[in-house]
Amino acid sequence: MPTTIQGAPETKAGAVRENGAIFDEFMQAFDAFREANDDRLSQIEKRMGADVLTEEKAERISRAMDEQEKRIERLALKSLRPPVGGPNEATNASPSEHRTAFESYVRGGDETRLRRLEEKAMSGLTGADGGFLVPSETEAEIGRRLAAVSPIRAIAGLRTVSSAVLKKPFAISGAQAGWVGEAEVRPQTNAPQLAELSFPTMELYAMPAATSALLDDAAVDIDAWIGEEVELAFAAQEGAAFVNGDGIARPKGFMRYDAVAESAWAWGKVGTVSTGFNAGFLAGTGADALVDLIYALKAGYRQNASFVMNRRTQSTVRKLKDAEGNYLWAPPSVAGGKATLMGFPVVEAEAMPDIGPASHSIAFGDFGRFYLVVDRQGVRVLRDPYSAKPYVLFYTTKRVGGGIQDFDAAKLLRFAA
Minimal CA–CA distance to 315: which of 61, 68, 72? Predict the structure, then answer.
């Protein structure tokens, strides 16, 4: 679909007020949910079952909270967008030669200056399928937006490379060291046990379309426009691949590695902790299962750990209480913040599986050390004014890889006995 611009630009103050109002509504919904869920739990204790109307009320409020969270997320993402006129207008900075040439190419199809830059740099900006590398400002804009909207990318380790494959050695047994006295002989340390991890990058593409009127509008910032158009397409594909990708023409997701009980954990596998009940939490022991999951992780990983689950699993976890009757899940303390579960941030990844028999629906760990996202340097754009007249298509590609780099840095909660 072509892009159109409607209405006057929103002011930053207006966006902040709107975000604050929605956050207030979210907190009111959470108070109502807590009251409805307390009634539900009280009825279960008294009658061995909750009233249907009470169940429906709690679920309805929970869904309303989910919608409020989505609106807060969308507003937070809007606040990242630069003002109309572009970042250079706001900062009075002069655009680079590459950016000026690229803008001429995007707006009018003029390749002359880009080809001259290619000859000047003695490097191939044009790929086998045509197109040109975007300037660093545009690439930075795309990367910034992806970090904000792609849940796993936002918490994973990130490496930018210039080659097609990143090969990384990893010391399975840790660094080899020891203690000696000042005058003692230094014994030779044992050879470290190394594993070579390989992270190939795969091509990810999007094809935004624009009208001639939009391209002729000098007030439209090309960096922001391309970043905005490709962010959701790239983020949706990345989000699914980083969780469930099979490693064929896409990154390998962390859920596609072998998972074993924590007692049988070995390098190359992901450890799991069971809830003790198939397809759910055992009544009254949900907090215990989550505590077991948290403490299956070594202390060095726990300090930066996050819970990862989808929205439906979070809806279930939201109802759990500890032995003192306190809710384990807490709403974000500020607009744009993250909800917490037992003090740790909750990251929503819709590609995570729903709770079911023997499902691994909750991950917990230090994802910065657990999962590595590899970006190959350069985003390429090919202008196509012919295939969808009267619209101009922009075939935009980047190369992305990913995989587990430290198998001990995260654990999965298995919903099974």
Answer: 61
